[in-house]
Amino acid sequence: MRILLICNPNSTSQNEGLFRQIIPVLRDVEGVEMLVKNTHYPRHAEEIVSGLTRDDFDAIVAVGGDGTVAEIINGMLGPVELDEDGKVAPGDRPQPEQLPALAIIPTGSANVFVRALGFPASPVEATHVLARLLERNQTRKICLGTWNERWFAVNAGFGLDADVLARVDRAREKGFSATPLRYLSVAVRGYLRARRTPPQITVEARAMNGKELKMKDAPLIFASNTNPWTFLGPLPVVTNPENSFSQGLGLFGLTDLGGVTGLVGMLHLAGADKRRLLNKLTTANTVEFDDAETVTLTTREPQRFQADGESEGKFDHVRLSSVVDAIEVFAPRDPEPPHERSAKQILRDLIRIN
């Protein structure tokens, strides 16, 4: 088995000591031939994998976070082409069996995608699990989301989450680490700003079964491709409990950020309402829509947009879609269930330094 290992040296937990633990595990897999390449600038991983097929490598292993994974997916699948209905046009898009299968060793700050596939969060533990999967050549096909001409694996949207990620990125550029406490601090300030001047997002969505959603002037809306995902660093969030890599996009939104119901809705996003005991307070201003095939998001003025935890700039119109069986990944057969978290565990993760 020929493996291309793509490493992002700037990811949170990547260092020489880690490589001394994970490389021997992969080399011990019988029949493995491995090539290692490091990324040196944004979207470098995308350039490295562009045009590669299974004739070149059987698997591509991303050693990094969700941003590295997103780059590799976009590099392998290429630009998205949409038809008149907003669905992904068949075109010349390569089929999953023609592409290298994707695997991930998590070294980012959140690692949402790999955890949703059922891997442990520890990179060393995840490598041992991956080694067993490589030995059995155990893969599965999953759905992916698209936004305009690009792909995403975890989530995407306008509103508070995009604003938080943009401001955390600026803090990282100044040398500050992206700890859960920093995410929380930025999120609180962003929430207060959003209450004063909400983005006003119009949503039109159509589900696989033909059901439709139309909503105007929502202050927060995003689409997720899996469950759970994350809003504050590594803290898991369950917005659409039925969502998975095997169906369309799940949409979650709030119609009002003000008052008690708006605050409760934000607590839900932070993972504080893990048993959903406050649902009665939030039902009136919470929107959940599952198995969406196409989504159109429009704002009155350009707003920040994020995809897979990366700030993508400002837009006033974005088209999303879901693509069934878009890519093949190495994954355990039974993903880990959503993690029940106590208040003590949430507090511990908030103050943990990555």
From TrEMBL:
Keywords: Kinase, Transferase. One of its GO terms (cellular component) is plasma membrane. SMART domains: DAGKc. InterPro entries: ATP-NAD_kinase_N, Diacylglycerol_kinase_cat_dom, Lipid_Phosphate_FormReg, NAD/diacylglycerol_kinase_sf. Its cofactor is Mg(2+). Its EC number is 2.7.1.-. One of its GO terms (molecular function) is ATP-dependent diacylglycerol kinase activity. PROSITE patterns: DAGK (PS50146). Residues 1-148 form the DAGKc domain. Belongs to the diacylglycerol/lipid kinase family. This is Lipid kinase BmrU. It comes from Corynebacterium endometrii. The gene is bmrU.
